[in-house]
Amino acid sequence: MTEERVLELIEQKNYIDLKKELSEMNEVDISEILNALDSSITLLIFRMLPKDTAVEVFAHFSPEQQAGIINAVSDKELKFILDELFFDDMIDLIEEMPANIVNKILANSSADERKLINQFLKYPAQSAGSLMTIEYVDLKKNMTVQEALNHIKEYGLSKETIYTCYVTDNNRKLIGIVSLRNLVVAETDKYISDILHEEVIYVETHDDQETVANIFIKYGFMALPVVDKEKRLTGIITFDDIMDVMEQEATEDFQIMAAMAPSEAAYLDSGVFELAKQRIPWLLILMIAATVTGRIITKFESLLSTMVVLTAFIPMLMNTAGNSGNQASTLIVRGLATDEVALKDAWKVLWKEFRISIIAGVFLATVNFAKNMLFDRLGLLISLTISLTVVVTVMLSKMIGGILPLIARKLKLDPAIMAGPLITTLVDALTLMAYFAIASTLLL
Amino acid sequence: MTEERVLELIEQKNYIDLKKELSEMNEVDISEILNALDSSITLLIFRMLPKDTAVEVFAHFSPEQQAGIINAVSDKELKFILDELFFDDMIDLIEEMPANIVNKILANSSADERKLINQFLKYPAQSAGSLMTIEYVDLKKNMTVQEALNHIKEYGLSKETIYTCYVTDNNRKLIGIVSLRNLVVAETDKYISDILHEEVIYVETHDDQETVANIFIKYGFMALPVVDKEKRLTGIITFDDIMDVMEQEATEDFQIMAAMAPSEAAYLDSGVFELAKQRIPWLLILMIAATVTGRIITKFESLLSTMVVLTAFIPMLMNTAGNSGNQASTLIVRGLATDEVALKDAWKVLWKEFRISIIAGVFLATVNFAKNMLFDRLGLLISLTISLTVVVTVMLSKMIGGILPLIARKLKLDPAIMAGPLITTLVDALTLMAYFAIASTLLL
Asked: Which value does ipTM take for this structure?
């Protein structure tokens, strides 16, 4: 169904067909359509949906639509939504809403819930704690498989996942996991302690979401338990939230590497001023940083005015250096993000980039030399100057590009800021210095 | 356990502790350790593992270790491995192995299996077909819930997932899905047809893996059915394989945007020549493309030799233009990859970039003008030339950066090649032309 179809059916007051067609749709698609519609129509359709579906649709609404719904519904309706919403979605909701709506939400929560909400709101952004939810299946060691299955049958529908169940002791300490697969295939009179998997991989509430995502990717887990410092189970993270994290982390790195402030907002939904604000600071910083290259050129003005031909090769040299550096830094930034490269590999990286840069530098310089001599018909010494500069700057750029992201990681900065524009500006300056130094030596 | 600990225990011939410590490890970690060890030790440990664990460890081995194992084991052992391996892992294996090992594998497969292998090998790389596996739970409409659960109990352990079950008719046509969650909470005497979910989202064998990944992210699915043109169920794709795809697709885009040939090999595992080969072609192309900028400079040599100060601002202008273009193109490339931007948005993108570029351009030009007049103490006309060039090139760059990836998508090229270096080279040339045109007008 499309927006147009919804509006058409509403126009005709054909609510029977509307209900029927909505019931055949996935909740995500329903909320996508409603997000684009007017809030009064959204409310009308929202109330038409079966209650469970409505809550799932609500969870996928844009913050604006969520605020509209909360403002419009009765306390009783709101209580139902809040009860049915998974806890992680509830926390996300509270973080997005303005103060008056947060107050309405808190007023419709119990004291215990409010305490828990406060606790969850304190977890740092992009930490495991900020991703987890509390609706997991909690089993005990001395349950039989049949008892566990009955427990799941009773409470399973309100849990975020029932496919991995968590076994805790009386102090809420995590002692193992049992998959529903193992429960289903086990003899029903066996005990949980018989089929328990005790070697559990878990994360702590303050672990970074990138770390969490890399564990999911490495092991292919469906869910991961989150524990506090005393190893008490405080929540679980499910794979679907991690897919969002992966997408978001990659997007952030793309943005940072293209000299922008990272933003989670979708491009088409962002305002022009918002996008401009995301971009201008780095453009400004880099523009001012480029003053250095200008200074270097000014310093060698007399050399350039006697040999203007040298100027013509400045852009090529700077681009080649920038591209060489970027290649290396991008691979290292990405390797760090996916846990394929670690700090301890610094010497390996440097040695590798050293050898690659010799191959690439000599190759490019040779092509250049041939081109300069045969096509551009430049003199031997000028051709030599340009080609030597290519070798030197490709080598410098690749080694700097390889090592800077590792230095950033060491300094606990985001390695991504070291790729792209910052490297480009740095190697630009180095390239010019090398160029003029070689030219002064060979040509004067 | 670490590599050193494994070697130590083998040295001591303390196989009891070795077995015990291995049994407490995740299969992925075991294979990671064995990947780093000698193939004779790998084989020794491989045979020490419980058979089911051994196959899972095998599935995570590097191709070299897999080849070593297949060469070393008996036909009977190989048959067991092949039987237990999920079909998608088997296809991956066959694609990685040299011909003699593929022959050994095929010799140990039945005629039916060989037929199926051949069919799967034909699916295009990076298509849904190349990702799917055949080990899914197949239910029938007229089964009761109890019958379905019994079926799962019997066959569940050999399936890639049992959490989503697929209901097909007698022609293998997909008619619906049932989640294990719904089976577990349902009354056992109900029929599958009662709890069947008929509105199934599915993909076709030839759909691109990026499309598949975006469906997983959007809906948070655990598995997705793959059908052929007649809507017959041919396999399923599970979320863990999609996480790998997401990582791989992002890495590919990073590499392409940093002017490299995409490669799936990990940086530290890649040889120096391999890495050089990945990088040199684009460096070469871009170096030669930069000849154009050189030509433009040569053409305006006389202008530059009378006003050498103009040269000093070339790097700043080119960088600002390149960065501006990159910002826009990166957002659009990423938006296309995550399905947030589509071809139909071309005008919206252009209009948005037009407005952003006015804001950014005018802002940067103003700062520049103030700096040139107050700090660099340049003349009014030269300052004006530089600032006007900033406005013009920021605008050009952002609009080109926004639209080129969309043009690439339209031409069925990878939008990522339009970001980064290619845009930089293009806007470099445009920047110089604008600069010299404005300078000639204002200064001569």
From this structure: 0.89
